[in-house]
TrEMBL record:
It comes from Luteibaculum oceani. This is PASTA domain-containing protein. One of its GO terms (biological process) is cell wall organization. GO terms for molecular function: carboxypeptidase activity; penicillin binding. SMART domains: PASTA (SM00740). One of its GO terms (cellular component) is plasma membrane. Residues 644-702 form the PASTA domain. The chain crosses the membrane at residues 6-27.
Amino acid sequence: MKGPAWKYYMVFIVALVAGLAIIFGIFKIQVIEGSHWKNKAAALTTKYRKIKAVRGNIYSADGNLLATSIPVYNVRMDVNADALTDDVFYAKIDSLAYCLSNYFKDKSQRAYKNMLVSARKRGERYLLVKSNIGYLAQQKVKTFPLFRKGRYKGGLIFEKFTRRKKPFGILAERTIGYEMENVHPVGLEGAYSDVLAGTEGMRLERRLSGGVWMPVGDENQIDPKDGMDIITTIDVNIQDVAEKALLDQLRKHDADHGCVVLMEVKTGNVVAIANLARSSTGAYSESYNYAVGESTEPGSTMKLAALMAALDDGHISIDDTVDAGNGVHYYYNVPMHDTKDGGHGEISVKRAFEVSSNIGVSKIISKHYSKNPQAFVDKLYSFRLNEPLGLKIAGEGRPKIQHPSDKAWSGISLTQMSIGYEMLMTPMQILAFYNAVANNGVLLRPNFVKHYAKNGKIVKTLKPEILNPAICNRKTIEQLKVMLEGVVEEGTGANLKNAHFKIAGKTGTARIANASYGYKYTSKYSYQASFCGYFPADNPMYSCIVVVNAPSNAVYYGNLVAGPIFREIADKVFASQIEHHSPLNAEDQLLAGNVPVSLSGYYNDLVTVFNEFNVRTVNKGTAGPWARTSTKDSEVEILPYESEKYPKLVPNVVGMGLMDAIYLLENRGLQVVVSGRGMVKKQSIPPGRRIRANETIKIDLS
């Protein structure tokens, strides 16, 4: 073949081969490998994704809700739903846009319409219309044009998730805690997450543009199993008293931070725990769980452990005497100062403890253990003071009891340890030790949860955990109890003496060491004031510790700073526990000649209660189903509830109980925020004003 013809043939052959190769490649992909690529494409656009379970609630011991998961919704719309034709869509889009704008008040009607129309033109199937709305708003949205047709005819899709809420705000906030991804678990939320979390479900979802995932049908969905509830040991009323008492003293003494823990002696159940710290602005809040996590030198509260060792080893009795000297004593040329200028002189062991004599206690320990300090340390170890309590809540500080083999051990270590220095303890660890004395030697692990529950029924009850059935012999315990009572009756804690019941405990005033500057800063010492004890002393029911760190208004002694907090809590608990009080002698003290004050509320309930207690009532007009009441000298007047006639106006709930007030307000579309306890004394929106959509009203109780 001559001429250029062969070149054309070569081009034709190459093109033919290339075409055949392409055809073969298409055939291979579509037929031979078709199923493989189809599965791979499906894996990129659809997959099974987790559905979070509803987290269980956290309740107080008295039934109040401490933490719960409230439903929150994202409103989405399939603007290209199969049944949503152009005629239907454009006939109602203006009305829908108007309703959205009028209810949420975040965009104009035009902005909403443009968003929906543009999304339809783009072919979107999962448009986010509004995020983070509550249950009442969700119910309202269901009534809007188009949306009232539902998902398949109107394109309405709700994406539900939950948000954690604490109805009591900052009350026990750090102890309740939180549980978040990639964050170390905090408090009960973290500690009991395996109980609260439940079991996740699974469902098939399709990935849309923008990384949005949309559920694909329900037939293959595995529903999640909701978490269990936990019923804590916390009593909300006592918790409130503890936090207020602590806050008042922190403010009074301009302290840096402090904590309070109240515990049941026989069970180890923590009834109240408060932790407050001063921020840079001067306000106090719960930012850290000091009771659980802060290890410090406890000071004089640990004199109890020192004398427990000497008593249990048989070296002393509480009636023995010790020469406490003239107020200053030297150990290896290092002075130790006593709690009284001029010293206490020769006193009994019991009196040395009552007046918190540093020299008296240190001389006792030095006399009997200086030749064998390890025996003293081993005795403290036998009390389990060197081991963590193993609390379920994360973050427990580690205790530290100096040992003769440690590099830091010196000639004065033994005497310093006898008065609570050269050792580290957390408030909770000290309290557990004192609680063991109150509990006749039985050391318990502090507990925060009483029950697991599901759908209102108890599933599991958590029993007290014994860490040591007898930290020392019974005779030692009895002698220690006498000394602890003596502290309050005639010692450093005399300002806590109570006319109605006896308190036993020990004051503590410790200098706080800082890693940077030791015990002194700008020529001033920094102190920690504390009081730890139990009550009633003759039949211990509760143990309590109070620690106030760095009081800075010239008063820093444990009895004056921490003592009043302990006293206020003890008084409140004693007054609120009926078993502490003798029954009334009179057979019927119900009315005692006076008519009880009545709340306004649901008419049938009011009449039932009045009839049950033989309270005379007089109807003033036609009442029902709601009524107002007016208490007179010998009767209760029942009056009509005028607000009932005007369902679009804010009702008057002043004088009602909380449940009735919430029922009325929420049924009129108002979102309620509650403050305080008791009956309603004030409402933020005056009665008679027209109700606005999605409006919040605050009611104060008293």
